[in-house]
């Protein structure tokens, strides 16, 4: 399938789709469940490509102060960016409580995130989903992220989606 980068969105859309007009920063996410790792990879890769393979982060501050600690990877980050798995989470299922909950985390504080991940990814190996998340989180640059995603695709026998308008 060929995907087209839509200038009105940070999310690529299938070339045959005819989306409703979007406002800046609005996302097109239609899947409520994934059947294959290839589907997850396609959405993650295309979403990351649309944002130039720039990492999605949030600034973390010390509790009760304005002291900036560091930037942390985020499902929904600054400037409308999303991480690899963040591109797979529809807006109606996302909640800020998910931030900090890594895929596969089952701690009681992350029940809401765990339920969303279980619903979205079903029988797909959670270890594969976590590794895909790590391709984003562990990247040191946009080029590094793209290379890591290519390695992930090769390791799992996946096809990198063809994207029109991508550099």
List the defining traits of the structure above.
alpha+beta, 3-stranded mixed sheet, 167 residues, disordered N terminus
Give an account of the 3D structure.
It contains 4 helices and 5 strands. The protein is globular and about 45 Å long. Residues 1-28 have low confidence and may be disordered. Helix 3 runs antiparallel to helix 4 (142-155). With 167 residues, it is α+β, with helices and mostly antiparallel strands. A hairpin with a 6-residue loop joins strand 3 (57-61) and strand 4 (68-73). The strands form 2 sheets. Strands 2-1-5 form a 3-stranded mixed sheet, with no helix packed on it. Strands 3-4 form a two-stranded antiparallel sheet. The longest helix is centred in the first third of the chain and has 14 residues, at 37-50.
Task: Summarize this structure briefly.
This protein has helices spanning 37-50, 111-121, 126-137, 142-155; strands spanning 2-4, 13-14, 57-61, 68-73, 162-164.
Spatial order of the strands forming the largest sheet: 2-1-5
What is the ordering of alpha helices and beta strands? EEHEEHHHE
Q: Cα-atom Rg, whole angstroms?
A: 16 Å
Proportion in helices:
25-40%
How can the largest sheet be summarized?
3 strands, mixed
The chain-level mean pLDDT equals 75
Low-confidence runs of at least 5 consecutive residues: 1-28
Total of helices? 4
Total beta strands: 5
The best one-word shape is globular
Tell me the structural class: alpha+beta
- The first-to-last residue Cα distance is 18 Å
What percent of residues are in strands? 5-15%
């Amino acid at each position: 399938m060929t995907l087209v980068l839509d200038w009105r969105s940070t999310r690529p859309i299938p070339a045959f789709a005819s989306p409703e007009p979007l406002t800046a920063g609005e996302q097109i996410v239609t899947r409520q469940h994934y059947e294959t790792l290839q589907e997850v990879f396609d959405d993650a890769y295309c979403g990351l490509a649309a944002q130039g393979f720039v990492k999605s982060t949030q600034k973390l501050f010390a509790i009760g102060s304005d002291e900036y600690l560091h930037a942390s990877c985020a499902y929904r980050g600054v400037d409308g960016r999303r991480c690899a798995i963040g591109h797979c989470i529809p807006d109606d299922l996302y909640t800020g409580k998910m931030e900090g909950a890594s895929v596969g985390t089952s701690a009681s504080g992350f029940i809401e995130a765990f339920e969303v991940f279980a619903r979205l990814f079903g029988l797909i190996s959670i270890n594969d989903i976590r590794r895909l998340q790590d391709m984003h989180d562990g990247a040191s640059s946009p080029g590094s992220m793209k290379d890591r995603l290519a390695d992930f695709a090769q390791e799992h026998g996946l096809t990198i989606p063809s994207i029109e308008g991508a550099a």
